[in-house]
Amino acid sequence: MNQRTILDILSGQKSGVGYSMLRAALSLARVPYSATMRARRWAYGRGLLPSHQAPGAVPVISIGNITTGGSGKTPMVEWLCAKLVESGRNPAILIRGYKDAGRGSDEAMLLEKSLGQSVPVIVGADRVASARRCVEMNVDTLVLDDGFQHLRLRRDMDIVLIDATNPFGLGKCLPRGLLRENVGTLKHAHAIVVTRSDAIDRPSLDGLLEHLKTLSPSAILCTAVHRPTGVVAAGRGEPVDALVGKKVFAFCGLGNPHGFFHTLRRLGCNVVEAVALDDHAQYDSQLLERLCSYARQVNADAMVTTAKDAVKIEFSNRMPPMFVLEVKMDIVTGSDELLAAALSAGGD
Asked: What is the CATH number of the domain that holds 336?
């Protein structure tokens, strides 16, 4: 069962007695899951479960979310680390990593490509162990990717991302909805960044911001957009308007693929077909052959994918023209306050 089908079932788009019974069963399963997550956070908060400080009391800044699916964590990590470097800091990134067979973590490869060797990227499910690996490095800040629920490593600042297009994961915890934790946990956030804030209308955005203020009154509240910065074709960088007006076959394996498709349409692309693969999809030769065949069938001028997907694809001359859309996180409001808080994290 693919990601799109699961979302259609959870949202109620799939109707019928069988799907209704499945949703009822998932609602029952949600109760113990939600209770377990609340108990887990409570136990860590009271020291009943052990948490660990980073070696040398190096400040830890977590970037996470409260839902499954993509809210922009990787571009947010890139934005923060670039700003820290500009400010004279030496950050390292601790990332769990989802490995593509034989190639490593797609997020790690993308971050290493965008930030260069000046920012170490430490991959490992045990982020406490990853933090200890940084002892011998000239590191003064640890950026914890996808860390809001990773409570074993103490953090000095929690930045939580909220996707404006689906802010609260259908309003229900897993497995009935997409919430990893109850929305009440946002009270622990030091900063909340509403991503894809340009994908909803202004009244809806204002209503969301007001609701977030009630959930986390003391948090810094920011808005952000995924800003296209250029495209890469045949290894050459081109301006972003190189895609405008083209008939494109778009594909990606992201937590929120429709955000990518929305960005392409806003650019002025004619998206003749959009294929959403599972998150962290592995691009073997069979899958690539099928995608290229689909693109030819719809007479697309070009295929377009994301930079995160592109690091896992072996391009060849046998493919139709392939474009990689490069996107950066742009903090539209609250960026100065957010950066100031990050720079002071861990201070006395």
From this structure: 3.40.50.300
